[in-house]
Amino acid sequence: MHFFTYKNNKLYAEDIAVSELVREFGTPLYIYSYATLIRHIRAYEEAFCEVPHIICYAVKANSNLAILSLCAELGIGADIVSGGELFRALKAGIKPFRIVFAGVGKTEQEIEYALKNNILMFNVESEAELYKINEVAKKLKKHACVALRVNPDIDPKTHKYIATGLRTSKFGIPIEKALEYYKLAKSLKNIKIIGIHKHIGSQITDTSAYVEALSKILSLYDKLAKYDVDIEYIDIGGGLGITYKDEEPPLPKDLANALIPLIKSKKGKIIVEPGRSIVGNAGILVTKVLYTKETGSKNFIIVDAGMNDLIRPSLYGSYHEILPVTPDKRQKIVTDIVGPICESGDFLAKDREIEKITPGEHLAVMSAGAYGFSMSSNYNSRPRAAEVLVKGENYALIRKRETYKDLIKNEIIPEDIL
Ligand code: LLP
Prior knowledge:
Layout lengths: L3 E4 L2 E4 L2 E2 H8 L3 E5 H14 L5 E6 L6 H9 L3 E4 L2 H9 L7 E3 L6 H9 L4 E4 L2 H13 L4 E8 L21 E2 H13 L3 E7 L10 H19 L6 E3 L16 H12 L5 E4 L3 H4 L3 E12 L4 E5 L8 H5 L5 E3 L7 E7 L8 E9 L6 E4 L20 E6 L2 E6 L4 H5 L10
Parallel strand pairs: 4-20, 5-6, 5-13, 6-7, 7-8, 8-9, 9-10, 9-11, 11-12, 12-13, 15-17
Antiparallel strand pairs: 1-2, 2-3, 4-14, 14-15, 14-19, 16-19, 17-18, 20-21
Bound molecules: ligand LLP.
Ligand LLP binds next to helix 10 and helix 11.
């Protein structure tokens, strides 16, 4: 559910015509809907309200400070994977005691930064990392609170690049080894075990993989009690899918209904780490049609947003619905919609049926709020897009469009060498 709809034959973001925002801010332009964000966050809060829980928004999905500030205001936490994400989360006012830190490659500096800021816990991904966290905590004369990220070897039936809970994936500790590592963690003086974590993948469209993974984790949880390991937090990760085309993913309440019966009798607090399902359908990318081209073998619509702005179609072959900002019931054609980048992999859609569009018009790439701007780059020396947040008929620029100067601001010409 989102708030990007047609009114009088014009695409609106809540109560503002997209064409108006384009006139003011130009393209490519990311537009986010406040009402959609709030609705999704509340849906999670309500879904899990019958058990003690913390919703930790996965910052990687969209890390704009304004969106993180909204999370802070609503009292939710953050799931982070880098020092940079911690910096953003803290800047936005997210409480450290609601921040969990995952990722296979935490550096010493990142661990130190997180310890000094008293985050809730590290989701530890290897034995070596456990030793490293213990060492840094000892240096700081602190105790590091940790969960072990357990890899339950479950196939979430999603794109292979975003499946993370299979035996062959780089993430987590193999479930067969988990007990051994918990014992090890217990023996380390500056480590305090407080949780168990899993995250099996992203864009998951049914609850069965969650149920299977959680059941495996909970049998480990039961074993841990026998070894006097006290688990206060059961972190089930994120990963709930959204509708890009015709998927019918479970809602947060369906996920909660499937998982709460398994967890209710346990005394741990549940942590959920949604990213895409909060912000994915809360954002669109608006782009201008520059040219149309018919080569005899194919039709192309060439737009001013490229794979540097939204890499998902190029990287995963992902489908994003593409809608005219001002539709006109014209004849439909089948066409590729491509960006200006010098790569054949630079496309937003392949063989898409869309009404005949003319240069100068605008298209909206739907469901672009998650892993859109946050994965964007300056490839081909293209300044990154502007971002706008809409609330009813109000709106605000939440990230300025980059300039050419921004592109080179960290570069140095070494005059004594050249
Ligand atoms: N927790 C952990 C530990 C994660 O690694 C992730 C995502 C999440 C939570 C949030 O998952 P979500 O609820 O957003 O599915 N770039 C890809 C998605 C990569 C997801 C990485 N991890 C895409 O555009 O589809």
